[in-house]
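Inverse folding, one chain.
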């Protein structure tokens, strides 16, 4: 798989399952150093969020996230994101995630480079 550089990339939500809190108003600001990634995100139902993780040998992003929502509830979870470079050169991340607090449900989402 081609190595992708996520440093200084901005992503927006394209889809999410109903139990997720990220929506089309949420913006993600990614950073990368070597195989390590981190991001800040906010917008929509999210007041402030952070994620931290690494890129696996197979190119899949593995990370944990936490945010505070507009109901003043802190949510935590983990996610694996499969990157795909689209024909227009933009990056798409297909995500399988799960909450690690609250209802501990799972979901799927997609974010696309802005």
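Residues assigned per position:
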């Amino acid at each position: 798989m081609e190595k992708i550089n996520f440093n200084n990339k901005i992503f927006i939500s394209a889809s999410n399952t109903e139990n997720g809190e990220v929506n089309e108003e949420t913006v993600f600001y990614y950073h990368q150093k070597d195989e390590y990634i981190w991001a800040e995100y906010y917008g929509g139902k999210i007041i402030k969020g952070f994620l931290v993780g690494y890129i696996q040998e197979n190119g899949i992003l593995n990370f944990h996230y936490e945010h505070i929502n507009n109901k003043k509830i802190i949510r935590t979870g983990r996610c694996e994101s499969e990157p795909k470079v689209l024909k227009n050169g933009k990056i798409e991340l297909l995500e399988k995630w799960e909450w690690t607090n609250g209802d501990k449900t799972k979901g799927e989402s997609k974010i696309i480079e802005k």
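The chain has a mean pLDDT of 97. Residues 1-16+59-101 form one domain.
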